[in-house]
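Work Package 3 (structural annotation) set out to generate three-dimensional models for the target panel prioritized at the project kickoff. During this period the team completed the workflow that converts sequence records into discrete structure tokens, so that structures can be stored uniformly alongside our sequence database. As a representative example, we reproduce one entry of 91 residues exactly as it appears in the project archive.
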Amino acid sequence: MTDTTKRTAGAFDVRNIIGALLTVYGVILLLMGLFGETSPEKTGDVNANLWTGIGLLVVGLGFGAWWRIRPLAVPDDIDKDEVEPPHMQQK
């Protein structure tokens, strides 16, 4: 029997890591913008933490949506048991 399901990179997809980091930093900056002490005269009366946090959240969640909508497919012809590191291959 052959397995017809498509294998994906899953948690090892770099978009997961980037999206998670951007989302975590976005949440931190968003909370600092909402509840932290700000000095509006330093940024020209703009709450820089708030707006940067919102931007990071949008981009981080965009990476997560991209990963969910278009998962990275692993080719079928590559078997993990047959792959050898380049320094171990015979010439």
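The first helix runs from residue 14 to 35.
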